[in-house]
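Weekly structure sync - notes
Attendees: PM, LS, DV (DV joined late)
Agenda: review two folding runs queued last week.

Item 1: First target. Sequence and structure tokens pasted below for the record.
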Amino acid sequence: MMPPSPGPRRPGRHPLLLAIIAAASIAVSAPSIQVAAEPRLTLPITRVDVVGFTVADMERSLEFYTRVLDFRKVADSEAAGREFELLTGVFGARARIVRLALGDEQLELTEFRAPRGRPVPADVRPNDRSFQHVAIIVSDMDRAYARLRDAGVEHASTGPQTLPAWNRGAGGIRAFYFRDPDRHFLEILSFPADKGRAKWHRPGGTLFLGIDHTAVVVGDTDASLGFYRDALGFTVAGESENYDVEQEHLNNVFGARLRITALRAPGGPGIELLEYLAPGDGRAAPADQRANDVGHWQTTLTTTSLDPLLPLARAHRVSLVSPGPIEVPEVALGFTAGALVRDPDGHGLRLIVR
């Protein structure tokens, strides 16, 4: 027996088309669902407290910084114990820590009595990402350079350089790189009348005035801004692109072309990002550098809470040296909690709560 005929098909829309129209109708009529954005991970910095580094011989360093550069000693202490080990990432750490003041800013020198670390590598270059220096402002570049030359400092520039007038962001600035007895890089710098903070132009100042900023070499400025500006709350205070023969002789890097970004927190000296657009052969910071190595620098940043530290570190490729926030005896170090980390390029940052 044949199945009954379905009869003629009634005119109308194809079933698949009807399904698509129905789904679209539901989507339009349904209330929209708002997906909450992930909260941005921030750890706002209130101040760049102090810039510091490890030294091999404290008495030798004190002689240099106080006699040649006119710093004055304001604190001298010793630190040891479990909290200090965790804070520095150095087992068995015992160190002498001296704070030196110049104007309104301070420098912190740390000599590890135990265990001793390695010296500054002989082949470190100013375009390597381990490079860091502090910029000391002087009222008279010629007199300051004469003082350094008389003291027999090691030149890192060929001599003082005046940046060219065509460079709107840096034209007229005079600068000179040199090294301290441990071969840390330092800079003396003088501003023309139209540049620099007002405090550097007060009449009647001494020869060495204070610390304007610390500078670090980075591999990618935009990535670093994602950390320093967006996560830590620094503001961009100035930008320039520096090149030409004066810049080459200042940095002692042939063909140097730099993107320079000046950052400021609400208080303290600035942090300057140096990205070498050329040459591109700068080496990454050594992954095995430790706080007791003489090549170690750490910039101390104050904040109100270290609670966001661990998720922020995961989000921004920040390496933890301390295993997390460490509560420390306030009498010994001047703060109640801290952590040592390395930024995405390997530069040491000590985050503290007072």
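Item 2: Second target, run right after the first with the same settings.
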Amino acid sequence: MLEILLPGVAHLQNIHPLVVHFPIAFLMGSALFYALAWILGKEGLATTALSLLILGVISAGAAVGTGLYAEDGVMVSFSVREHLLDLHEDFMLVTLGLCVVLAIWAVIARPFPKKGRRIFALLFLALLVIMTLGADHGARMVYDYNAGGNACSQPIEFTK
């Protein structure tokens, strides 16, 4: 039944591609609302930012979980696995760890830390940079090396 409504699902080897965009959107949205809350001094914006951060943690956990589950089925050469997949995994595990730490900190400080606000903001910025680097590695695997696709029978070797 699902394949009738969503014919592309029949070709999916895993659901990782369906969930990866949620943490990107939630975490970037959270950072934006925290920045606005800090600049404008509006606690309501910080409350929204905290809600988005919690959704970011949940969705990042789902993205990491589905990615780890799908890892063995990714059809790429060893060179691509070594240069992109392993780094993608490392970046995204660090992203998940950082967003968990920031969410715990924000929940305790409700909704935005008064003490250490600059450190919180710098850690959030680091999180966004690391997440972006990891997402770029994932995108390169998909678009440059056909990871998870079936358009070629031989894995493509890594090139810079």
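Discussion on item 2: The mean pLDDT is 89.
Action: LS to circulate a short write-up before next sync.
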